[in-house]
Amino acid sequence: RHITAFYLETLILIIVFIAYREFHSNDYTAFSLGEHGVAFLLGGLACLLVILITECAKCLLIMHSLGEKCAVAEAFEIIALGRYYDALMPTGGGGQPFQIVWLTAKGYCAKTASAMPAAYFITRQLASILISVAVFLFFPHAVSNAVRFAAYAGLAFCCLIPFLELALSLKPVMIKKLITRVLKIGVKLHVIKNDESALGKVMHTLDQYHEGFTHIAGSKILPAELLGLSLLCRAALLSMPYFALRAVGSSVSFGSIFVIIVYICSAVTLIPTPGNSGVSEGTFYYVFSSPGSDGVFWAMLLWRLLCYYSFLLLGLLIFGSKLTKGRFP
What we know:
Elements: H1 2-23, H2 37-65, H3 72-88, H4 95-105, H5 110-138, H6 145-170, H7 173-188, H8 195-217, H9 222-247, H10 254-267, H11 279-288, H12 296-325
Helix pairs in contact: 1-11, 2-3, 2-5, 2-9, 3-4, 3-12, 4-5, 5-6, 5-8, 5-9, 5-10, 6-10, 7-8, 9-10, 9-12, 10-11, 11-12
């Protein structure tokens, strides 16, 4: 609770500082939509819609491949709540454990409850890595050296988690040995009472997860479909800043904004705040507030509303609806 409050206070302070600098500068621009601003704003909302549709499609494809019946509404619920927890966690991976718990509470077997979030997360991260690598290779001097080297470090960190999870998913022997040792240590410390019973349950869950994940990975078409949808989803997310800037009247090109935002998103990965909040806003304003730029503060708010706060709002609405109807798992 105290950590969350600290993050919230830090975010507010950063936004207030940026607002003060913006409003007290000679180039201050009041909020207004530029020429065709409504159209560009709708373009940003369309990007959000593409994200939700592609991620729902991924969820449905994975669930159906595992032999589960999943309605579109339920897939949307799983994805939206996963994104909600992603936004709350510093690593951006909080949605994966939550989805496992949520699917288990919904009555899905261990194979589905564990393999679906893993395949969803890994393909999403792989898409992000592929786009980042392509941008870094073809546009190495698009940003300052400080942002560029921070982006390289962020990319290295992004590669670590999915590739480690992928290796453990396809080769579970290592993780089984590690868990066995951890459980034995827990017994010695009197944290776990019955190591054999606990070990049996954990190994059964791991076997179910390995069976489900290898089934997904062994499909001829499914991995390519999931990666293609993930690439489209990531491209839509990275396109939001362009539409936000154009909506407030900034004259920018899509290509340059897309490349710069790839660097920014990668650079702030290592910052341990929920959804990289605070740092993302500050970096966006720093990079785009060049002389002659218009409405960068408002574009920043629009961008974060589209790519971050919208998922928090969706999650809160779903939670509120579930609690109101008494259908919380």
